[in-house]
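Hello forum,

I keep getting stuck at the same step: I have a sequence, I want structure tokens, and every attempt I make locally crashes halfway through. Rather than fight my setup again tonight, could one of you with a working pipeline run this one for me? It's a single chain of 499 residues.
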Amino acid sequence: QVREAAQALLQAELRRLGSQGRRQLVLDWMPHLPQSLVAASGSVRPSTSQPNITPSSPMTPGETIDAPFATLRPQPLRYDTDVLRQQAVAMVILSIVCSEFGQQASPAVISDKAPPQSPSEPVSGRQAARLAAALIARKEKDPYEPQVIQMTAKALEFMLLAPSSARYPLSGATRRTSADLVGRGFNMWASYIDTPAVVFALLKLCKYAANKLKNDQKLKERNIGEHQATLRAARHALSLLALARPAEFITTIAKEVANYTPASSALAQMMNENRGAATETTIVYHSAEGLPRPTPSSPTPATTSGGGGVESEILRHCHSDILHIVELLLDKMTEDVILQLLEVIDIILHCVEDTQLRTQGPSAAFPILSRFNMVSFCPGTKRLAVGARTGQMAIYDLRSPRCQVLTAHTCPITSVAFSPDGRLLATYSFGDSKISFWQMSSSLFGMLSAGMRLLQSFPTDPAAPMAVLTLMKTVSLVWVNQRSVVLLTSNGREQKFTV
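Reply #2:
Ran it on my machine without issues. Output:
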């Protein structure tokens, strides 16, 4: 309660200062940023001015103030408690001002969906309202140069990633605050920080705080509160980060899953197929200057399961936190998730217990999956079929576990469904107006790619274009017997096909 009251008071005071007052505050506190962080930001020249702070008594070895910045200055100076505290406060003030009241001074994209390029292009009422609201909100914010935001982002990144020490523990107030601020303003910082590193740093905080609360029964009441606050801040920051950039979050976790269990990962199979033949499709985000910012390089999947490394260790202990965020994305950012449905399924299958998957099925173990008609599970054969927006289809054998990826359609797959005995699989694509029937072998991976074969394809009645979410809710495949399936379309019509 005290922390929330302090945040409310700080925001109220910053609001009272107005635009000019906040800009002056930024100028006053910028010299307190660690200079090596300024130099590390690339295009920004490091400042040579020192903070004008009256020195006090030097820090004693017994003090435990959260301040990792003492060693960051290039000059061999000894910093006292006040200087260290000033550096930490500078991070907080600049982060709050930039994230809550600031915007990029250079032109930036208002939303993921670009506005019409010419007056003749139609704009829906909802799109116009959203663009208008974004423009109004932008006018009410203060423009800050990209260098200011870049310096603040790099400082926050360092605060979060700095190694643990006696003076800067993992559950310390400064690291906890940096986690909160990284999540709160992630759209502002995303162009300047290493997103995968930040994601795994936050997961590491979750793992550390949860283990402390679970295993150490002799914690003092003060330490219990610190660990609880750290766990809450890290989880909240992860949720905000994922909602701000769902594609980056999904890709980060899915690539680590592909490294850890390549045999059961659809992403690993696709990367292996594309290696040498074509470059992997990457998601490109745009920085504040409007220039493409490359995503982190794709790791090469291992040939055997059981990847090592710090990220894999964190991944093994954070299943519940990852599943919670995936469920949040499935509920709030459905359209973004559909674009990376295979990667999301990889993550879910990795994080849910194997026994629970085999006995209950993915939809029962993770109920929100039942919303997606492009996901089908056969209880008899323990196989899971997933259709992707690329026209590819992944077949997971939960008994092995193994995964096979093949191209089923030339357009996004709208619906898939196993026959009651699991011997046939029907796939439908709204885009190419075609339904296909696939025969499943008794041993899917016994004969390499011959595990399933195309039996027959039928054209379907074309329909008017519609939104992805509408298709997901209104189009489905229903088997009426072992050989016949009914296609239920959005206009209420039923088309029956027999193979």
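Residues 2-29 form the longest helix (28 residues). If your local run keeps crashing, start a new thread with the error log.
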